[in-house]
C-alpha cells in the first residue's frame, strides 16, 4: 500500500506502508469493519473525513511528526476509546473527533495551539480534559455536549474561550480560569448547572458582567467576580485540595479539625473542594474523617453535603461505599434523603453509575425507604416531556429510566438479561406510547422470569451438593444406604441454607 486513494476492503486490522506520508481525503470513509490501524512514523497528515463513520475502529496510534488532522477525520468513530494528539500537531480541525461517543482517554500534548469548532462535540464518555499551555483558542462548541465531562484543567497561555465551547456539559463541576484568559464568549458554559468548583486567577480582568454571564450558577448564591478571585485567600488547605498537589496528604496531616470546617465564599469546606474534583483518593478521605468527622456533614451555600459531590462526580465504588458507610454510622446526626439524590443522579450521571449507587445504598442502608414508584413515574414523565419537545439537549437517557424501573421491582437492581434490557430500552424510546405502568409491568415480568431462573439454578446447584455429600458419606461408610434418614439429614444441614427452594422429594432424583 505504497500509495492509495481509498480503501474499501473488509480487513479488520491494517498496517499502512512506511512509504505513505499522507492519508487521503475519505480514505477509509464509512468502513464499518475496520478495528485497528497502524500508521507509520512518517505520516504527516490525515485528510478530511479520512476515517469518518468507521464505527468499529477502537485503536489508532498517532505518531510524533503528524502535523495535520483534517476536518471530520474521525467523525462518528463511535468505538474509538483513546487518542493522544502529538506535540507536532498545531490544530485539531473542525469536527475532527465529533461524536466519538466511546472516547474516554484524551491526551493533548504541548504544541497544540488551536482546538477547532466542534472538534470534540458530543464526546459523551470524556470525564477529564487537560488543556496544554500552548493552546490559545478553544473554538465554538469544541467540547459542546460532552455530557460526562467532570473536570477541565487550563494553563496560563489560554486567551479565548469562544461561543458555546463547553455548552451543555451538564456534569462539569471543576475548572480553573488562568489570568491570560481575557475573553469568554456567550454561552461558553451555558447549561453547566453543576459548575461550582471554580477558581479564577487573582490577576484576572474578566469583570463581573462576563463572570456572571459565563457562570450563572453563582447568581443563586449572590457570589461576585471579586469573591471568586479571592476565594482561597488565607485558605491554604482549600487551595491544596483544589490543585490536588503531590503534597496534599502532607497538607491534610498538618490541618486541624477547625481547618476542615472553614468555609470559602461558596460555603465549601476542603472536603467539598476535594469531592468536586475528578481525582478521588480513598486514603485522603479516610484521613480527613479521622481528623474531623464533622466535615462529612457540613453543607455549602447550595445546601449540599460532600456526599452529593462524591456521587455526582461518579467517584469510584470504594470511595462511594466509604462515604455511605460513614453516613450510616452517623445516621442520628443527619438524615440521608436518597430519593432526592436519585432524582439528581438521573440528570447528571450514567445509568451504569446509578445502578452502582443504588447497590451501595442497599448495602449500607438496607432498611432505608425509597419511593421507587414515585421516582420512576417522575423520571419517565420527564424523559417523555423532553422527547416530546424534541429537545436535542436531552439530559435523561433511556438506560437511566430502565435502571430506575428495575430498582422499583427488584432488590438486585440488575434483574434481567441483556436481551431483555434492550427490549425495555426500545420500549422506553417509543415516545408515542410510552407509559409508566406498561413499562413497569414489562420489568416486573422479566424480573419474575429472572427470579424463577435463579431458583431453578439454585435448585440444581443444591441437588448437586447433596449428591456429592451422599456419595462422600457412602464412600466413608459402605454399609449405609441412601435411604438412611440420618444420612439425608446430615447432607441437608451440611450442604447449604437454601432448602426452601428445593423441590419436594428431590432426593428421589439423585440416584
Automatic annotation (TrEMBL):
Gene3D superfamilies: Ribonuclease Inhibitor (3.80.10.10). It comes from the Eukaryota. InterPro entries: Ankyrin_rpt-contain_sf, LRR_5, LRR_dom_sf, Surface_bspA-like. This is Uncharacterized protein. It comes from Discostella pseudostelligera.
